[in-house]
Amino acid sequence: MTVELLKLEDEQRCKVFKALSEPIRLEIIRFLVKKGTEVTCGEIGDGVNLTKSAASYHFKTLREAGLTFTRKESREKYVSINYEAFEQFLPNLLDSL
After folding, report:
1. pLDDT per position as a tens digit, 9-66
2. 1 in a structural domain
3. Contact assessment for residue 32 and residue 79, using Cβ atoms and an 8 Å cutoff
4. Do the domain assignments include residue 66?
5. d(Cα 79, Cα 69) in Å, to the nearest integer?
6. pTM score, two decimals?
7. How far apart are CA 26 and CA 9, in angstroms?
8. What is the CATH number of the domain that holds 41?
9. Strand 76-81 relative to strand 39-40, pairing
10. Domain range for residue 42?
11. Exposed/middle/buried for 55, CB within 10 Å: 0-12, 13-18, 19+?
């Protein structure tokens, strides 16, 4: 593995740890794990008691860290967990939530 590739992986790790350093984002991940499928942004916001703007900010942070996927269908956005990212960077974390 080259030094450049290691640096890229370290940058990604930093994004992952930063994204998960906020308790509400852990709560969002926990909510998604509990649901076990993709969920609308509104349903997540209601489930973890967030305003739309706050939820949007946290969804973006999780998505940019590669921990979630967001899919838009018509006017609705759906969020799901990127299980591969968790397995790569934090194996067994989801089981502990």
Report:
1. 888 889 999 999 999 999 999 999 999 999 999 999 999 999 989 999 999 999 999 9
2. no
3. yes
4. yes
5. 6
6. 0.88
7. 22
8. 1.10.10.10
9. antiparallel
10. 7-96
11. buried
